[in-house]
């Protein structure tokens, strides 16, 4: 099988994997911040619900969560599941899973900021919102960037789990071609794709970390 033909067949899968990656980050990063706020809330019921949510998301396999999101509407509301819903279920499943991890990372970053800075901001007349966005948030971003980078790199590889919903991402298409052509070359190409993708992400996050360094 000519490499250029195989590459063209894999191209839609590459686009699907990139779409899952980008949309998951687009939704999970801000959602994680909201979850972190709820986790640190003084409202006990909200705090308990958030703890339970994070516990479920971190304590069960992502593959199982994808299946629950996909088949949930049918078993709960008796709604028919369309083929197009596979993509939406994939994005929802990935987003709520990664939001839980990002929430705990954000929480640790926020709580690592000395309380004295909040007290000083209050003395200067800053509101709680101003204190967070102008003082806490910039420092928090710098501190949480390394663990966030690890999660982002993991997300690149986790996009292959979309196969459980029969969504044709990169690895699924590679397996189909490999089975049809009785060759493992497509799987090696898929592995190379994930490696290059991760390398680009790692380099980009490292550049961002250096840009945020206070000592350069």
How would you describe this structure to a colleague?
- The chain is mainly alpha-helical.
- It has one domain (about 5-210): MetI-like (MetI-like fold), CATH 1.10.3720.10.
- The protein contains eight helices and no strands.
- Helix 1 (about 5-40) crosses helix 4 and helix 1 (about 5-40) crosses helix 8.
- The longest helix is centred in the N-terminal third of the chain and has 37 residues, at about 5-40.
- The protein is flat, with a radius of gyration of 21 Å.
- The mean pLDDT is about 85.
- InterPro entries: AA_ABC_transptr_permease_3TM (IPR010065), ArtM/GltK/GlnP/TcyL/YhdX-like (IPR043429), MetI-like (IPR000515), MetI-like_sf (IPR035906).
- This is Amino acid ABC transporter permease.
- Its main location: membrane.
- It is found in: Cell membrane.
Quick summary of this structure?
The chain is mostly helical. It has helices at residues 3-39, 44-59, 62-77, 85-111, 115-123, 128-158, 170-181, 185-211.
- Nearest-integer average pLDDT: 87
Radius of gyration, Cα only, in angstroms? 21 Å
Number of strands: 0
Low-confidence stretches: none
**Structural class by helix and strand composition:** mainly alpha
Instruction: Please report the number of helical segments.
Output: 8
Strand content is under 5%
**CATH domain class name:** Mainly Alpha
* Whole-number count of domains: 1
The succession of helices and strands, N to C, reads HHHHHHHH
- The CATH architecture can be named as Orthogonal Bundle
Helical content class: over 70%
> What separation lies between the terminal Cα atoms?
51 Å
Morphology call: flat
What's the main sheet like?
A: none
CATH topology: MetI-like fold
Relevant CATH superfamily: MetI-like
């Amino acid at each position: 099988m000519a490499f250029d033909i195989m590459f063209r067949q894999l191209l839609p899968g590459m686009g699907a994997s990139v779409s899952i990656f980008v949309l998951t980050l687009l939704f999970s990063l801000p959602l994680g911040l909201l979850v972190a706020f709820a986790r640190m809330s003084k409202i006990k019921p909200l705090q308990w619900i958030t703890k339970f949510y994070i516990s479920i998301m971190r304590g069960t396999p992502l593959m199982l969560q994808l299946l629950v999101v996909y088949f949930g509407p049918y078993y709960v509301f008796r709604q028919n599941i369309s083929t197009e819903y596979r993509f939406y279920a994939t994005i929802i499943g990935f987003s709520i899973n990664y939001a839980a991890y990002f929430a705990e990372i954000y929480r640790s970053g926020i709580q690592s900021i000395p309380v004295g800075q909040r007290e000083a901001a209050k003395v200067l007349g800053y509101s709680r919102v101003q204190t967070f966005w102008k003082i806490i948030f910039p420092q928090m971003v710098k501190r949480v960037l390394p663990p966030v980078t690890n999660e982002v790199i993991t997300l690149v590889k986790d996009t292959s789990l979309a196969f459980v919903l029969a969504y044709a991402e990169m690895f699924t298409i590679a397996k189909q071609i490999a089975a049809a052509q009785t060759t493992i070359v497509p799987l090696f190409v898929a592995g190379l794709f994930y490696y290059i993708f991760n390398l680009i992400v790692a380099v980009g996050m490292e550049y961002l970390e250096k840009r945020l360094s206070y000592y350069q």
